[in-house]
Q: What sequence folds into this?
């Protein structure tokens, strides 16, 4: 539940620079946070819907439970970040670094993760239906019980992944239904 505590980017940066790190449940929907340096930030259950966080540095940040439909995290650094149970439907993660990130039970349906690095990430129980993982690195990723139905895995590195119980959802070649496009 978001408390609707909103602030502009300048206020957020000023508070972060003064040592404040907890922006839990804040409404940052549609905020332009491109390129911000916010390692260790706490955005627990914040609303990041349609926010732009391109090239942002959010290493080791806590974004668990965020509501982030259509968030743009292209090129962002989310190494070791916690995005457990995050709603990230139709989000952009092109060339993002999510290595060693916790994405357990996150909803990444229809997201664009082209060329993203998810090496060593924890995606147990994540929903990646119809996501685009073209050229992504998922080496040593834990995908147990994840849903990969309709996921694009073209040239995806899957070396040493844990796949027990993963739903791969092979599509019926006789079906005439169109596959939804990733964001």
A:
């Amino acid at each position: 539940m978001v408390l609707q505590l909103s602030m502009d980017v300048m206020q957020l940066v000023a508070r972060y620079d003064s040592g404040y790190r907890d922006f839990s449940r804040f409404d940052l929907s549609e905020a332009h946070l491109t390129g911000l340096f916010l390692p260790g930030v706490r955005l627990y259950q914040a609303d990041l819907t349609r926010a732009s966080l391109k090239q942002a540095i959010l290493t080791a940040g806590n974004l668990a439970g965020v509501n982030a439909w259509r968030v743009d995290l292209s090129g962002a650094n989310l190494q070791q970040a916690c995005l457990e149970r995050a709603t990230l439907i139709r989000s952009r993660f092109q060339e993002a670094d999510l290595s060693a990130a916790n994405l357990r039970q996150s909803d990444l349906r229809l997201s664009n993760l082209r060329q993203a690095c998810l090496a060593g990430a924890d995606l147990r129980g994540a929903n990646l239906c119809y996501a685009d993982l073209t050229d992504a690195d998922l080496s040593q990723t834990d995908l147990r019980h994840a849903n990969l139905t309709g996921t694009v895995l073209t040239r995806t590195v899957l070396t040493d992944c844990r796949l027990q119980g993963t739903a791969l959802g092979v599509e019926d070649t006789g079906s005439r239904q169109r596959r939804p496009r990733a964001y």
In short: The chain has one domain: 1-170.
